Amino acid sequence: MIAKVIVDVPSRQTDRPFDYEVPLSMRKWIEVGSRVGVPFGGRVLQGFVTGLAEETDIDVKRLKPVSELLDPVPPLLPDLVELAKWLSDKYCCSWTTALQAMIPAALKGKAERLVGIQDEEAAAEELPPELLEWLVGSAKLVKLDALLARFPNYAGPVKAALRTGTLAEQTSIRDRLAVRKVLTVFVPEGAEEVREAMVKLPARAAKQRELLARMLEHGAPVPLQALLAETGGSAASVRSLADKGLLILREVETQRDPYAGREFERTAPLPLTAGQEEVYSRIRRVIGEGVPQTMLLHGVTGSGKTEVYLQSIQFCLEQSKQAIVLVPEISLTPQMVERFKGRFGDAVAVLHSRLSNGERYDEWRKIRNRRVQVAIGARSAIFAPFERIGLIIIDEEHESSYKQEESPKYHARDVAVRRARQHGAAVVLGSATPSLETFAAASRPQASRDQGREQALLPMPDRVGGRPMPPVTVVDMREELKEGNRSMFSRLLHRSLAERLERGEQSVLLLNRRGYSTFVMCRSCGYTAACPHCDISLTYHQKTRALRCHYCGHAEQAPATCPACESEHIRYFGTGTQKVEEELAKLFPGIRVIRMDVDTTTEKNSHEKLLKQFGERKADVLLGTQMVAKGLDFPYVTLVGVIAADTSLNLPDFRSAERTFQLLTQVAGRAGRHHLPGEVVVQTYSPEHYAIVTAQKHDYAAFVNEELRHRGALGYPPYCRLILITMSHEQLPLLSAVCDRFAAALRELAEHEGVLLPLASGFGRALEVLGPVASPIARMKDRYRFQCVIKYRGNIDASALVRRVLVPFTEGPPQRQVQFSIDVDPQVIL
């Protein structure tokens, strides 16, 4: 039997399956998706089996055998191996990079070099006595690193023994994280005999008698540490009892459960409104038919989308199928987890970045071992190893966090559609503010004919209980300045905050900018504190009095005087969340503020702790970046204030208006969700901008019409698709020359294929290459950056063109290679 193995070497030269012979002992175990250790280039590396065959085209005498099987159960299902190949082709990455994205970090194995005595007689002559004694005492292969750490002065003899063959060397793959095992205490069979032996223990063995009594009382096995904590006994006492045969000590596998000790109150399905019922019945029909179809659930904030999700999942489980639910990382709040755990209990696995590697690994194992039927998590949960997927839900589908920024730069929405085709599953994309690409696709009449009999658009325009959308007041901050108000709070927002404090209600304040000040400048000479590694200004953080680069992580102490002219007129400009928090304390003495941003939520469970405090009304104001705009549902929040709506509006990004509208609409939806009416105050210097005007009216249709008009005039998505190619190198002249040659080669190939045409409404197939030009951030981490943008539409395989052109540019000495980063369907062009 021949195994076709993708080796874990992320290189274009080795990006293909290699043939290996499967030893007879492994033939019943190795399957497509198995993880194996194979010899490659003088080393043993991790690889994935992508296919099995009886014969090979290679000379069988040259064929090497698989060294080891790393898992008895393959971590990847055959459909995921196939999906990884599709990812590799579409997103221009290596196959192994795509495969690695699908497994937890714990399984990203590393090679270990092991040594052992091969010739005992020669070893007695060549090796120092203490080294020989240690190796003989080990009686097995030992880690080379451990040997050299123990005997650092014997590197020479060890190398010589390896060369002569006195010592044999092997390489083995070991996982970065093992299954967690806990030393556990058992009562042996025959409890009466143990009870009799306990009575006969001498008087001085009182602690042993207590330990035995407690174990007999428990009956069931007890972890050693728990038993010692309960009785105050010692491990020595337990081991002594085990030596006498009165107790048994054994390592038992245990789950790292991130929600251990938490009790989730079970909930029952809620009555559905007419609008919810209509949407639910459509989703249920698609799941039942087993025909892949993508549907856009366009429901306003507070329309009850989550309840529709829950009941759709329940129907899916009743059909003996499995469900995946994706939510943005910042929306994966304790509230969201509680809703799903409360409805489905232990049938749910949760996967997100705030869990430890061990916890994520154990949650993943629950899925792989078929112990759960529902997976909820951020974008990587789309790779949950389910075998019979019936439903994939992507909540807040417009969120840019569904786009992976590292290779493979996939979009979870597109991967979900692909997996649904593999399984015959339904995909539900939910949002109050769908991305323009999704909305345009769902609104086209052709969409219903392409994807099945149903319309792809499922509207839910009304809030549950008929609650009105909160009124939104837009405050022109230019007028505030004219009236002499130089505070970051308008008079209306100040007054509204005071009213909520007086009534004991809560408020949410949004400022999508962390830190204290945006930049630091000298008013005497104009010096601006900038990152020495990136072409970007440093942000001031007051708590640590540090200047930080939010791109490369560089940090330095804030200067007391100007480094350029030594002036003392150093000033901090702009407003960050820290500064708003400080200002609130000045204006409202005694106000209780919880600040949520990247700086305050770095510790494990900090996100959950802060939201729990706010939910228990231990704070008057929840202040934060965009993480406070989504997924939160607090009954006493009656005021939402947006400090600066222009933050994302003026970015050099064609999606800036869309992101501003979405953020304002989402954060406005946090107010007045229950019995108390809500109010929203939006502060801006651009009150006439259509993104702000339409958000004020909660008018998604009007925004879409205006935004599509602008996109159409400029030829941006959804009227075309994009590929962003970023090239970087430490040497600017070399980078510039390579970029010009790459762009010329791309245009030449496109012209040869007959697709290099100007983008115009009359063409069905068109491709245009823009650039190369310097990236908006022209230097990052000491590397200069240029970019090309490909615009295309129709059925052109632009990714294949890029892959073909890249081949000669990724060969040659690494030190002279320009780094290429390919981003298909980019969310940000930076």
Written account of the structure:
The structure is a single chain. The protein has 830 residues and is α/β, with parallel strands linked by helices. The chain has 7 domains: 2-103, PriA, 3(prime) DNA-binding domain (GIY-YIG endonuclease, 3-Layer(aba) Sandwich), CATH 3.40.1440.60; 111-174; 181-253, no CATH class; 274-466, 3-Layer(aba) Sandwich (Rossmann fold), CATH 3.40.50; 472-514 and 576-712, Rossmann fold, CATH 3.40.50; 520-571, no CATH class; 721-824, Alpha-Beta Plaits, CATH 3.30.70. A hairpin with a 2-residue loop joins strand 3 (35-40) and strand 4. The longest helix is centred in the C-terminal third of the chain and has 21 residues, at 732-752.
Characteristic key phrases:
830 residues; alpha/beta; GIY-YIG endonuclease; 7 domains; 7-stranded parallel β-sheet; 6-stranded parallel β-sheet
Topology:
Layout: E1 2-7, E2 18-21, E3 35-40, E4 43-53, E5 68-69, H1 78-90, H2 95-100, E6 110-117, H3 120-126, H4 129-138, E7 142-143, H5 144-150, H6 155-164, E8 167-174, E9 181-186, H7 191-200, H8 206-218, E10 222-223, H9 224-231, H10 235-243, E11 248-253, H11 274-289, E12 293-299, H12 305-318, E13 322-326, H13 334-344, E14 348-351, H14 357-368, E15 374-377, E16 389-395, H15 412-423, E17 426-431, H16 436-443, H17 445-451, E18 457-460, E19 472-476, H18 477-482, H19 491-503, E20 506-510, E21 519-522, E22 539-541, E23 546-548, E24 555-557, E25 570-573, H20 577-587, E26 593-596, H21 606-615, E27 621-624, E28 637-642, H22 656-668, E29 679-684, H23 690-696, H24 700-714, E30 721-729, H25 732-752, E31 766-780, E32 783-793, H26 798-806, E33 819-824
Parallel strand pairs: 12-17, 12-18, 13-15, 13-16, 14-15, 16-17, 19-29, 20-27, 20-28, 26-27, 28-29
Antiparallel strand pairs: 1-2, 1-4, 3-4, 3-5, 6-7, 6-8, 9-10, 9-11, 21-25, 22-23, 23-24, 30-32, 30-33, 31-32
Helix pairs in contact: 1-15, 7-8, 8-10, 11-12, 22-23, 23-24, 25-26
